[in-house]
Amino acid sequence: MRGPTESFDYIIVGAGSAGCVLANRLTASGRHRVLLLEAGGADRNIWIHIPLGYGKLFANKKVNWLYSTEPEPELDGRRIIQPRGKVLGGSSSINGLLYIRGQREDFDHWRQLGNAGWSFDDVLPYFRRAEDQERGEDSLHGVGGPLAVSNVCEPHPVCEAFLTAVEQAGFPRNDDFNGPTQEGAGYYQLTARNGRRCSTAVGYLRPARRRHNLVVAANALTRRILFDGRRAIGVEYLEGRATRTAYAAGEVIVAGGAFNSPQLLQLSGLGPAALLQSCGIDVVADMPGVGADLQDHLQVRMQYRCTEPITMNDVINSRRQRLAAGLRYVLWRKGLLTIGAGYAGGFFRTDRSLATPDVQVNLLIFSADTVGAALHPFPGFIAAVCQLRPESRGHVRIKSADPSEPPAIQPRYLSAPADRDVIMRGMKLLRRIMGQPAIRRYIAEEHAPGAHCTGDEDLLAFARATGTTVFHPTSTCRMGRDATAVVDERLRVHGIERLRVADASIMPTVVSGNTNAAVIMIAEKAADMILADATAGAVTPASPSRAA
Ligand SMILES: Cc1cc2nc3c(=O)[nH]c(=O)nc-3n(C[C@H](O)[C@H](O)[C@H](O)COP(=O)(O)OP(=O)(O)OC[C@H]3O[C@@H](n4cnc5c(N)ncnc54)[C@H](O)[C@@H]3O)c2cc1C
Q1: In testing the pocket of ligand 1, which one of 398, 471, 478 has its CB within 8 Å of the most ligand atoms?
Q2: pTM greater than the 0.85 cutoff
Q3: Band (542; pLDDT cuts 50, 70, 90)
């Protein structure tokens, strides 16, 4: 039984994609005592571990914060859902499992912005260290790491037709989006092993939980970081009904994700002074960048009625086929239950003069009116266009000093004119692919937006009326050297001692692809920097005997 006050070397807030990696790496030597705090509970829900179960977790408040945005002015005033994992593994326990790192140029750009140590060549060893790649090891891929990366188990006729159509439209085939080039279309790889999800709770935390120097507190909401002047010394958290305090002789590491990390910093007195004062919070440091620069990927989902009953709609809507799919999974770990958020997809340049792809297309072999809604009663599939490098910037701001009140989340999707152009060009590019002979045989009609939607204005109106997140919020505690950057290139909060942020919120710009792999890389690198600083004496860890 732990007492109301405890001491550790490191306190990690949030057991998500990043937090579980940190907990594993910081405890590996046995020298440091670590407390990992997680607001959610254990990852016992069976649907977490079955890849297709992803669809069951969108609206499950036991594992999901169920955030939504403020009304979005450029999306017809709609509030956009923002699911986030609230469970061990965080969003890596509820995400779509797609394993995409982003483009080499994303990280080289981070380096260009002044962040030494973050070029692609610098971060590649961390991607490789994390990975247990089913296809084996090469200069870009690793094996033996905690994160299982595997191929989708079998081809699907609609995906095959899509991949041929891509080539008919003049774009390349690509069998490895994390290989030498991202451009082209192919099947995705998933963070899964033997048909089971490999969240960071599974890959990193499970093997570390046996260690005597790791304490994991689930259902423990961190309410604020404690400071002595401008030095972080611990946290106050709520476990059940008990308010507890934990002290860190080394560092506090915030890994609450792109919404909760800036929220926690603001609740603790780090943020825009006027906002904090309006909520009655004492200002520790006036930091306008905390919660600023929110970036996210917007997707527009084009829906197709399929000519043949070969889609997931047909399986889910038939009791017999559902049972057969379940049996296939139980016996051989194959079939529809092993599929993540996308089956196949591609990265394309909407303008040939661009150096790298600016849109991603996700092919889903089911169709529904909105994310998480019931599948259509007819055979159908979706191809979703997502803009990879949005220029729109939003924010996350607390509404009160109450840690249990969700912050205001305002991505300001499509507020930058360039983003509107790219999404329109992306939809037109997708229509060009879907007009090719190979895929046309499977398209009875474009169900939405539909044949009546022709001009740029119509396409934009569809994007405004139906566009939604691909769940990649980042950059709200941005790494950099400028006045509004929150952390430096070693992820230390500017002007504050012994406090780091390590999660999706530190990305200077969102990567051109899905974000889980990059977050895991960030945490791998953060762990090395934290341990190196401890060794160099920048931080003096408490000896295990000093811990309670
Ligand atoms: C529905 C969905 C689908 C996605 N699909 C994909 C995909 O297919 N591929 C991909 O690469 N990426 C995908 N992503 C994105 C990816 O999963 C996230 O970018 C990544 O998991 C973020 O990691 P993180 O560590 O920053 O935050 P998270 O993983 O969200 O972790 C934050 C953790 O901190 C906890 N926490 C927060 N505040 C507190 C507090 N005050 N006290 C204690 N604990 C706290 C949270 O409960 C959570 O467990 C998806 C995300 C979602 C939500």
Answers
A1: 471
A2: yes
A3: very low
